[in-house]
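Entry 12.
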Amino acid sequence: MIKKFFKIGELVEHSGLSRQVIHNYTQLELISESKRTLSGHRLYTEEVFERIKKIMELKGKGKTLLEIKKLLNSNRH
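Predicted 3D structure (C-alpha cells):
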C-alpha cells in the first residue's frame, strides 16, 4: 500500500487547526512529521489526522497537552 503524505498546508486545511498549532503539536511531540521533502517541507501521513482527532477529544474533556501526550504515548506501547 502506498502511503499518502500531506504538507502542512493540507493538514491545516483538513484538520481545521492553524499552522502554528500544528507546529506546536509537532514540537511537543503530540504529532510527528514522517519525513521532509528535499526543500525542507514537513510531510505527515494520514495517521496524523486520527491522532489530531484524539487530541481534540481529550482537550474537550479538559485534559492538558502534557496529560494528552502521556496518554497518547502510553497507548503506543
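Annotation: Residues 5-75 form a domain with the Multidrug-efflux Transporter Regulator; Chain: A; Domain 2 fold (CATH 1.10.1660.10). Residues 47-60 form the longest helix (14 residues).
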